[in-house]
């Protein structure tokens, strides 16, 4: 039995889609399948539009300035995209909970998965664990899944670049 199909994988997929937006319905479907989503219906242009709208709303959650604003924005997404919990074995992969109706189009499916997955991630790991990279010129979104909850950079490359910048600033006596 699956305990949480809405875990960090869907939040990482949301970040990947937000950081590099799909431009066609086919690309959206391919990237979702590659992430392990079961797509039960043909993917059409309306699915891409709904997914992009969901990513716009989700980025507002990412960029919220405090926990209360983040929760309010996410609660709005949840209200618009979810339904009562239900048990399902739709893909023959074992019984698990869904917070959505069955056989949704991909755009609606992503809206539900992203809102519930983000809520579970933030409630379970901490409200601060969704952010943009700390490097000023990098706007990459990431979900902090580290053990300590103190991840500041989207990648090791950005962490190294910032460390070099700080080192050079100290070496020249500046506080950049």
Please explain how this structure is put together.
The chain is mainly alpha-helical and 176 residues long. Helices cover 52% and strands 7% of the residues. It is built from six helices and four strands. Strands 1-2 form a two-stranded antiparallel ribbon.
In DSSP terms (H or I, runs of 4 or more residues), the helix count works out at 6
- As a whole number of angstroms, the C-alpha radius of gyration is 18 Å
Share of helix, binned: 40-55%
Helix/strand structural class: mainly alpha
Give the overall shape, derived from the CA principal axes. Answer: elongated
Strand order of the largest sheet: 1-2
For the termini, the CA-CA separation is 51 Å
The parts where pLDDT drops under 50 for at least 5 residues are none
Number of beta-strand segments: 4
- Let me know the largest β-sheet: 2 strands, antiparallel
The share of residues in extended strands comes to 5-15%
Mean pLDDT: 91
Order of helices and strands: HHHHEEHEEH
Describe the secondary-structure layout.
Layout: H1 8-19, H2 25-34, H3 45-62, H4 67-81, E1 86-88, E2 96-98, H5 106-125, E3 130-132, E4 141-143, H6 156-171
Antiparallel strand pairs: 1-2, 3-4
Helix pairs in contact: 1-5, 3-4, 3-5, 4-5
């Amino acid at each position: 039995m699956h305990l949480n199909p809405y875990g960090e994988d869907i939040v990482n997929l949301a970040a990947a889609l937000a950081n590099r937006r799909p431009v066609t319905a086919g690309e959206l479907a391919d990237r979702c399948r590659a992430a392990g989503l079961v797509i039960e219906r043909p993917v059409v242009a309306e699915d891409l539009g709904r997914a992009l709208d969901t990513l716009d709303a989700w980025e507002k959650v990412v960029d919220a300035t405090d926990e209360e604003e983040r929760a309010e924005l996410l609660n709005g997404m949840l209200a618009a995209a979810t339904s009562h919990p239900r048990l399902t074995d739709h893909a023959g992969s074992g019984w698990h909970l869904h917070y959505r109706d069955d056989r949704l189009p991909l755009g609606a499916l992503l809206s539900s998965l992203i809102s519930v997955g983000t809520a579970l991630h933030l409630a379970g790991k901490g409200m601060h664990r969704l952010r943009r990279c700390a490097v000023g010129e990098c706007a990459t979104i990431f979900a902090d899944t580290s053990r300590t909850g103190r991840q500041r950079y989207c990648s090791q490359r950005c962490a190294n670049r910032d460390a070099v910048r700080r080192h050079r600033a100290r070496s020249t006596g500046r506080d950049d």
